[in-house]
Amino acid sequence: MYNRYIPPTKEKQSRIRPQTTSAASDHPYGRSTRGQTPAEPSQRPPTQQPQRIVFDDADLPPIDDSNRKQSLDEEIASRAGDKKPKKSKSKKSKDDTEDGAIVAEREPKREKKKMRKREDKPDVEMVDGDDDRIRRRHKSVFDKVQKSLQTKDDVEDASEEEAAEPEVEHDLEPLPQPEPVIFDESKLTYETLPPWLASPVRVGPDITRPFTELGIAPESSKVLETKGLKDAFAVQTAVLPLLLPSPDRQGDVVVAAPTGSGKTLSYVLPMVHDVSKSRVTRLRALIVLPTRDLVQQVQLAFEACTAAFAVNGGKRVKIGTAMGNRVFKEEQSVIMGEEQRYDPEGYKRYLRKQDQIVSWGDSEDEEDDLELELKRTQPLPFHVIDHVFKVDILICTPGRLVEHIAKTRGFSLDYVRWLIVDEADKLLTQDFQQWLDIVMEKLSVEKPGARDFPTSNKSGVRKVILSATMTRDLSLLNGLKLSRPKLIVVEGTKPGEQNLPSLLKEFAIKIREPSLKPLYLVDLLHSKHMAAVNSDTADEATVESKISDSESSTSESSASESDSDSESDSSSSSDDDESDDELKPKTKQPTPTTTNKPTLPTTVLIFTKSNEAALRLSRLLALLSPDLAPLIGTLTSSTKTSRRARTLRAFAQGKLRVLVASDLVSRGIDLLNLEHVVNYDLPISETSYVHRVGRTARAGKRGCAWTLVEHAEARRFWREFAGEGKGAVTTIGREGLVERVRVGEGEFAEERVKAYEGALERLREEAAGGREGRR
Ligand SMILES: Nc1ncnc2c1ncn2[C@@H]1O[C@H](COP(=O)(O)OP(=O)(O)OP(=O)(O)O)[C@@H](O)[C@H]1O
User: Fold this and answer.
1) Phi, psi of 116 (to 5 degrees)
2) Is the CB of 426 under 6 A from ligand 1?
3) What is the distance between the alpha carbons of residues 775 and 771, in angstroms, rounded to a whole number?
4) Sequence-separated (6 or more) residues with CB below 8 Å from residue 80
5) Overall average pLDDT of the 136-151 stretch
């Protein structure tokens, strides 16, 4: 800081003492002036020794120059004519009592003002040469003080300047302003879309109707009822009448309905109904799905319904799958068969061809052809071999379908009259081996009468396209070459968006310490939040029995690897009691005595961002929470299909309660009685969020979705997924709001953190051991 300056009076001037000091103190503030190098005192002549002016308040008497000032003011006033003389406002005595810092800041400004006033009146103020010299020196001191204060003020004002630009005075004429940006707040309308997309058929989410009212025969309805399917759900009430035989001219159907709303049965029932009317087994229908797990799940739905239409003379429809879980040849033999047909002309042609192969068989390729031919079944004399389908309906993944079209003898789509694309947005966006182009080309082949629908006026291929997050992208839908399409939308609170099930409750958990995230998860799993939310689920959760069951047998960790991918995968219709059972409502158990283990969760599906993350988290959970270990299963795309199926089955039976999964199972998977979904890692998109959380709150049941949100993810989560906060934009439609919930609040106890670090170390060792083992 600097000494406070009091302007010198005549009286005071006599007290200013010149001092000979060091060079550093030549400057009034004990520093050399910037840019000047002060000379060594010894080099200077004594007369040129600078004077150190010491202003010491203690030495100075109070200034009372009011009289002099008054006379000066009067003179100024008399010169100015009409201006009144101002009263002197010297506050010296008051300032002396004020806080030093404040005084120090105010004083220079005030003194500068006074100086300026005096400079304006040189004839009055400048009494003699000494005065003049001292005054000039003071002025330079003022200037420097002023400058330093100015710099300080500048720094302090900088932040304010950022906020508000300084006002610059201009002429009265207004400055030219930039054109105001007009934001187009109008929402995307469907006006540019074709009428069928612009005006969908809207259905309320709570409508139900008996199947018999929708065109299903009473005998079939009865069978469905025994499978737990009493009334049709909303989407089924709208879709069934469009797909079941009708005298009206019918077209294709596009369905956008929330997860778990029953889209599968809306196409399964009319297809089975139609195909059961045809006598000969031929490939009549294709259902394309993005994953093997979904293929297996839809197969179960079909098999549960085939019996319902094998009444009143209808045939039992044969279902097959093609998804690449078995060796190709085996899959071929399950889908296709061979039949000997009497055809002497055909037999002659066959013999001529054999001769050609034998005589050409010189090159390596031709030898291979010959070998292949000899391996094939040989026709009986005067017979030829026909390749025939063993299934009426094929449920498949796109890649495997393309492979069969290319390589399987006799695999023709000539008689296909149903094409179902489930999870359509995924299948249309991702071009799996250009499956759609290849299939559409095959379906364009017309064989007279081959694609006629026995009991309706519709001819050709009937297409049904479904998703909970249906695309409205025409360029994608165009590839399907839809004919007279209708869009069915099961309404939510915000029509047109990706609606969540109405009975889903969503929660967000703030993760304050990301490095301890697994501990938050453990706390959540053991909290009261993970209790059953559906009364019937609570009834089924006979905790003790299930724990002992799982401990003895089906723990994921103890699951046998011997379960190979060649495990039989029924390709034709059969009385698979186990499959049928899975669709049956579980018989109610007595109310459980959950109090013994109150902290164990009911049923939870935890989503991670990758396969590896799922495997790691699953193991970590088991280490951190040994009581949970036997109840944890893992589902990743690197897990064998058969093992995944077993895990899903164990979960459905209540032997497993916690599934840790990658996004593989986020779409379509129908886990019976799943109550809670946890987004351990944030999903990559809103669509992914909708599918993940849609694994619960299905088929009119309640469910909860929990998302762990780290600080860095909060903005994205609340804006994009929850649709809350400034600038929120979300396509997700929901009934309520996402609630904030606290879990793992406060410090985690030191022992827990230590145990966690120990578990991580163990995990590292296991991973290293695994790598060593593989080497
Ligand atoms: N009419 C019905 N009565 C009773 N249960 C039904 C009925 N229709 C469907 N379900 C059951 O509802 C559940 C969800 O059905 P489904 O899997 O078809 O949903 P989804 O709409 O395809 O969901 P996602 O979009 O997630 O694939 C299934 O367990 C199914 O058995």
Assistant:
1) -60, -40
2) no
3) 6
4) none
5) 72
Q: Is 49 exposed, middle or buried (0-12, 13-18, 19+ CB in 10 A)?
A: middle
| Residue 267 to residue 243: CA distance in whole angstroms | 8
Burial 125-159 (b: 16+ CB within 10 A, else e): beeeeeeeebbeebeebbebbeeeeeeeeeeeeee
State if pTM tops 0.90: no
Question: What token pair was written down for 271?
Answer: 């297809």
- For residues 528 and 599, what is the distance between their CA atoms, to the nearest angstrom? 7
Average pLDDT for 268-285:
94
Alpha-carbon distance 486 to 251, whole Å? 7
pLDDT confidence band for 380 (50 / 70 / 90):
confident
Task: Using a pLDDT cut of 70, give the percent of the chain over it.
Answer: 65
* Atom number, ligand 1, closest to the C-alpha of residue 699: 12
Q: At what angle do helices 263-275 and 292-309 cross, to 10 degrees?
A: 50
Any ligand 1 atom below 6 A from CB of 698: yes
pLDDT in tens, 363-374: 666 666 666 666
CA of 548 to the centre of ligand 1 (A): 31
Rounded CA-CA distance 710/721 in Å is: 14
**Per-residue pLDDT, 772:** 63
E strand segments, 595-697 = 604-607, 632-635, 658-661, 676-679
Q: What is the pLDDT of residue 493?
A: 55
Q: Which of 120-124, 245-249, 390-394, 639-643 holds the top average pLDDT?
A: 390-394
Distance CA 250, CA 233 (A): 22
Mean pLDDT, residues 639-657 taken together? 92
Tell whether ipTM is more than 0.95: yes
Q: How far apart are CA 289 and CA 148, in angstroms?
A: 75
Please report which confidence band the pLDDT of residue 768 belongs to, taking 50, 70 and 90 as the band edges.
confident
Tell me what pLDDT residue 141 has. Answer: 73
Q: pLDDT tens, 37-61?
A: 333 343 444 444 444 444 444 434 4
Domains and CATH numbers, the chain: 203-328+391-498 (3.40.50.300), 500-559+572-774 (3.40.50.300)
| Residue-wise DSSP of 584-606 | SPPPPPPPP-GGGSTTS-SSEEE
- Report d(CA 651, CA 655) in Å as an integer: 6
What is the pLDDT at residue 312?
77
Residue nearest to atom 20 of ligand 1 (CA): 260
Which of 51, 407, 29, 488 minimizes the C-alpha distance to 235? 488
Distance 234 CA to ligand 1 centre (A): 11
Query: Residues 372, 373, 379, 384: what is their CA dihedral angle, to the nearest 10 degrees?
Result: 110
Task: Please report the atom of ligand 1 found closest to the CA of residue 208.
Answer: 1
What amino acid is encoded at 678 in this protein?
V
Contact 540, 654 (CB under 8 A): yes
pLDDT of residue 308 exceeding 50, the answer is yes
Cα separations (Å) of 668 from 120, 263, 292, 435?
89, 10, 11, 20
Q: Of all protein residues, whose CA lies closest to atom 9 belonging to ligand 1?
A: 262
Q: What is the DSSP letter of 15?
A: T
How far apart CA 96 and CA 59 sit, in angstroms, is: 13
d(CA 318, CA 314): 12
